[in-house]
Design goal:
The protein has helices at about 5-55, 75-95, 100-115, 120-130, 135-154. With about 150 residues, the protein is an all-alpha fold. α2 runs antiparallel to α3 (about 100-115) and α3 packs across α5 (about 135-154).
Length: about 150
């Protein structure tokens, strides 16, 4: 072998090593970016959830409270509509595999806690009369509401 053959072999080896190192660095950077996006996504939904809950009277969280106890539903229904719209977004993204099971379990627990309250279940019944949600989501909410209601009775 000539010295130019060795230079070619070393150059090719260096190129292959560079490509492998760059590929690994890109893979690690994408993993970091994916984590950052998940944190941002979670934070955004947590903020939205907090804003919705702040718009509701505190009595809405009493399991014995009904919509009638809260006065005109004009003040209570809009934030609860927003809550269910947000729940739908979360459910939709989960169904398409856009976030991990841990994040979904946290959001599902928040939905479950809300559906343990009469006001949210009553509002859901009203909302489904004039808002179209896919049947799969309606079935999910019905199952969560039934589970939450049963747990609240214990």
């Amino acid at each position: 072998m000539t010295s130019s053959d060795w230079v070619t072999i070393l150059g090719t080896g260096a190129t292959i090593t560079s490509v492998v190192v760059a590929g690994y660095a890109l893979w690690r950077q994408l993993a970091v970016l994916r984590k950052q996006m998940a944190i941002q996504h979670f934070s955004d939904y947590a903020r939205r959830y907090a804003e919705i809950m702040e718009r509701l009277p505190s009595r809405v969280h009493d399991p014995r409270c009904t919509l009638a106890d809260l006065g005109p539903s004009d003040a209570v229904l809009p934030p609860i509509r927003t809550f269910f719209a947000t729940c739908f977004e979360e459910w939709y993204l989960h169904e398409r595999g856009f976030f991990d099971q841990g994040m979904w379990d946290t959001w599902r627990l928040g939905m479950h806690n809300a559906l343990a309250k009469s006001t949210f279940r009553e509002a859901w019944e009203i909302i489904t009369r004039d808002t179209h949600y896919p049947q799969d989501f309606r079935a999910f909410v019905a199952a969560e509401a039934a589970t939450a209601q049963a747990a609240a009775r214990k």
